[in-house]
Design goal:
Layout (H helix, E strand, L loop, with lengths): L10 E5 L1 H6 L6 E8 L6 E2 L6 E4 L13 H4 L7 E5 L1 E2 L3 E10 L2 E4 L6 E2 L1 E7 L2 E6 L6 E7 L2 H4 L11 E6 L3
Parallel strand pairs: 3-13
Antiparallel strand pairs: 1-2, 2-7, 4-11, 5-9, 5-12, 6-7, 7-8, 10-11, 12-13
Length: 168
């Protein structure tokens, strides 16, 4: 059993601005949350890893005070499981896009994987992907009522818990 730690969140990057400007905003510019490194240090050897989320002790674990501006995360249903894109040096997930036609924020639907959360005891949950995860890089990202006002998923991608899936 391994403990997922908060990932070293590096910030955001907006790309496609030049192309968007050349096309007078017809092509979307995209904003991404960036995590340094090509892969997470925690690796799962199977496509259906099991996670345990613990929220009971407010001084430790995922429910601790200060987690996500006030410690309002209290169960796994406030998380999204995302597949990350990998480039030469970093991992990323799209958290927004804008064009002359409008803007969107939150995680892209195509990067979201569904999971099942079973309550074992007060504040303790067993979490497992509903389907097989393909080999690659993933993260759990928390959403809060503040983020929910602007979109779900990685809109405020400050607290990411990353891991990788390898096929053995």
């Amino acid at each position: 059993m391994f403990m997922l730690e908060r990932a070293a969140y590096q910030g955001t990057k907006t790309g496609g601005m030049f192309t968007s400007a050349l096309t007078y905003g017809a092509v979307k510019a995209k904003t991404k949350a960036i995590l340094p490194g090509k892969e997470a240090s925690i690796r799962a050897g199977q496509g259906k890893p099991v996670f345990y989320f613990y929220f009971e002790d407010k001084a430790a674990g995922l429910g601790r005070g200060g987690f996500f501006a006030g410690g309002t995360v209290s169960n796994p249903n406030q998380f999204a499981l995302l597949k990350l894109n990998v480039d030469k040096h970093n991992r990323s997930t799209e958290i927004g896009a804008f064009s002359m036609w409008g803007a969107s924020s939150g995680s892209q639907e195509k990067s979201i994987s569904s999971f099942k959360a079973d309550r074992i005891a007060s504040g303790l949950y067993k979490v497992q992907p509903e389907g097989e995860l393909t080999p690659g890089e993933y993260c759990f990202v928390a959403t809060t009522s503040v983020a929910g006002a602007y979109g779900s998923g990685a809109t405020f991608a400050h607290d990411l818990f990353d891991f990788g899936v390898d096929r053995k």
